[in-house]
């Protein structure tokens, strides 16, 4: 490797296709330096997709407290990294089922959030509204607690991430428009 590093590459040294050493190089077809091996495989480092869903039932939403790091103990809604073989809607439904044990019908989009930074890992967070099929959550291994809250009871000071706050703010705003 040269001393030049690619953000988010985390010291990746070998080509995942052929195991040859990777170097950082500005190649003619690209507009920024890329990781490339001597057989010409270019390795792109891109953001990961996280999908979340805000389950709704009778004017309340289901929030959960994270039982894993990072942000252990903080509040969020179900969500996680998208798997390679699913749609964003399938991911949202799966996360709701895995983390809080409920079935949701995935409804409209609340928002798409990203926060670019010079270093990885960076993510794109996609958040949907979801109609919950039942009001009794069954906690998965990644949740400490789950509860149905009214919009005015959202624990704004104890939320897990900035994206959690952005999505809940958008949800509250959409409800206000809907009710008003
Ligand atoms: Zn290669």
How does this model look, in words?
- This protein is an alpha+beta fold and 180 residues long.
- The protein folds into 2 domains: 37 residues, Ubiquitin Ligase Nedd4, Chain: W; 132 residues, Nucleoside Triphosphate Pyrophosphohydrolase (Alpha-Beta Complex).
- Helix content is 17%, strand content 33%.
- The chain contains 2 helices and 10 strands.
- Strands 4, 5, 6, 7, 8, 9 and 10 form a 7-stranded mixed beta sheet that branches. Strands 1-2-3 form a 3-stranded antiparallel beta sheet, with no helix packed on it.
- The chain starts with 21 loop residues before the first strand and ends with a helix.
- The relative contact order is 0.19.
- The protein binds zinc ion.
What does this entry show, briefly?
The protein is an alpha+beta fold and 180 residues long.
Major sheet details: 7 strands, mixed
What is the ordering of alpha helices and beta strands?
EEEEEEEHEEEH
Which fold does the CATH topology of the largest domain refer to? Nucleoside Triphosphate Pyrophosphohydrolase
> What is the SS-derived class?
alpha+beta
Helix amount:
10-25%
Mean model confidence by pLDDT: 92
In total, how many domains does the architecture comprise?
2
Percentage of residues in DSSP E strands = 25-35%
Give the count of helical stretches: 2
Q: End-to-end distance, in Å? A: 59 Å
Strand count: 10
What is the CATH homologous superfamily assignment of the largest domain? Nucleoside Triphosphate Pyrophosphohydrolase
Spatial shape: elongated
Q: What is the CATH top level name of the largest domain? A: Alpha Beta
